[in-house]
Amino acid sequence: MPAKQTSLLGELLGNPATVGTIATLDESGAPHAVPSPFLRLDPAGRLVHLELLETSRTHRNLLRSIWFDRPVTVTLSGEGGRVTVVKGRVHKVHISGPLFSSYYREVRERLGDADLVGVWLIDAQEVINESYAVRKAREEELHPFFKHLDRLAVA
Amino acid sequence: MTLALAQNKPTDSLNDVVHRYPDVPRLIILKTDVQRRGVYYTDEAIALLDPAHHQTSGTHIFGTRDGVIRVTPESLLLRDGTSIITTPTPREDNPYVVDVLNGTPWLFDGGEPLEEVEYWPAPVYYNKTSSSGVLMKNIVSTRPQRLNIFPYRYCTFWNNGNGCAFCDIVAQMKKSGKELSMPARLDPVEVGAVVGEALKEQGRFSAVFLTSGSIVGGTQPFDDEIDYYIAILKEVGKNFRTRKFPSQLVGTAFEKSQLQRLYDETGVMSYTSNIEVLDEASFNRLCPGKAEWIGYREWKKRLVDAVDVFGPGRVNTGIVAGIELAGPNGFSSEDEALERTLAEAEDLARQGVSTVNIVWSPRPDTALSGCKNASLDYYIRLARGLHGLRAKYRLLIDHDSYRNCGNHPDTDLSRLLPLWEE
């Protein structure tokens, strides 16, 4: 991923006001989206998603993704209506080792008696600006026919 | 150029099987094939091994395929969290090669890099010494998420030469006792103390595993084995706030009254008793000690009885897949072996007992040392079949899963068993 986009994601994820959502695909292809409250970037620019339950739908869907090469998306909703969608592929899950243990401790510091089952690393492949103001301006520039006429009518 | 990169052999069998079974993840097929063929570590791969951070070989009750005790990675992790439990294998047997690519270990075959792998991480307590001065890792060893207790490194079926034909436990005990200063029989109090030390590492372990060789002695056969397990589990249990703790005992097929004692007096939560091969004639031939002391049909009956004690989804049996085809008396075809094995596994599954398989790796100090294991296609069909039986009969296998064991391709597939409770 280009450094500029990595920097953008880092900035968004570094803002406590940003809300992260991860969407995965289930066995039938249906999307399943849930909050990802621990979302962050690792030093290599990969998204880090923490899973707390072994049998959660997201954990199982992420496993399907790494097994059968299915995409995932992460949505970052920030201040001022800023929305960024990241399309990615699952790179790896850590289930043991120093990195896993450090996240385990962090989860328990924040949540008390909680568990951690996997530290999922996701390669961001495409970053899409889905902020309404940006999309609206683009739409009106490129697709002027898709507009209700009353918006253009003399008042 | 390193050794692995210089190789020039195709990986056709792996790719063929991957294409033949699109419902089975390539990573699980790769794991299975690595277990089937073994691994060879290049000098460069060994140089990446850091005993301060990685688990090194030599703590297990069974031996290696090359019959040598030396410092190598204990085993490998794939990027989906799957363990590959395998041992160094002679180069001439065409194993996969672990070599270095861009500073990290990778699996190679035919000169091509296939997957990045990790060496199992070393726990913090590994290099501490116990109260008796033994390295703690030689008392309680580990897998990525499991504590292994192998308290008795002998099997009394070998007293009259009736050990299992694929097993090298006694040969390994003699080697490890001499070369690693590993006690043959552990003190329960010391085991409990080492487990307590291990638990100081947060987020590392999610299961306690206990197994030893069979001990036939006692007022009733195997009472000595039961008593020993109870003594150890009681000491281990002192480390927990709860009466029960995530745990698995792999033992001989015990009488129901013995199992009830085990369950009532300890924190153990699941029970595994390995029948090794799901065919009576093969069992009698390949597991003569088990046949002499218990018998095939009684073994199955005791497994089913155990479900009453431990509950559905918490009892299973293991098979050493491939031995049923070994030698002149084995099944004559893989189709026949698979049909017979899955029929017997279904008979157990419908009564609440799950079957898991390991991929048999022929070892030098065993009666079957000259034989070859089965094809990759066979192992994948078997794993699919065993997983399918769990789905059909709604049998959880959490206690013998990728987290709690990691040695069974079929339970890797069961990471995606349906969630019946939802």
By helix and strand content of chain B, what is the structural category? alpha/beta
Radius of gyration of chain B: 20 Å
DSSP summary, beta strand count of chain A: 7
Uncertain ranges of chain A: none
Intertermini distance of chain B = 53 Å
Return the structural class of chain A. alpha+beta
Percent of residues in helices of chain B comes to 25-40%
Descriptive report:
- The complex is a heterodimer of chains A (155) and B (422).
- Chain A has 155 residues and is of the alpha+beta class.
- Helix content of chain A is 32%, strand content 32%.
- Chain A has a seven-stranded antiparallel beta sheet with strand order 2-1-5-6-7-4-3.
- Chain A is elongated and about 65 Å long.
- The mean pLDDT of chain A is 96.
- Helix content of chain B is 34%, strand content 14%.
- Chain B has helices at 3-6, 12-20, 26-37, 43-47, 169-180, 188-198, 223-237, 256-265, 280-286, 288-293, 296-310, 334-349, 376-393, 409-413; strands at residues 39-41, 76-77, 83-84, 96-101, 104-109, 112-116, 118-119, 140-142, 146-149, 207-211, 247-250, 271-272, 315-321, 354-359.
- In chain B, a hairpin with a 3-residue loop joins β8 and β9.
- In chain B, α6 (188-198) runs parallel beside α7 and α12 (334-349) packs parallel to α13 (376-393).
- Classes of the chains: A alpha+beta (155), B alpha/beta (422).
- Chain A binds chain B through residues 27, 54-55, 60, 63-64, 66-68, 91-98, 100-101, 103-105, 108, 116-118, and chain B through 25-28, 53, 77, 79-81, 118, 120-121, 144-145, 201-204, 403, 415-416, 419.
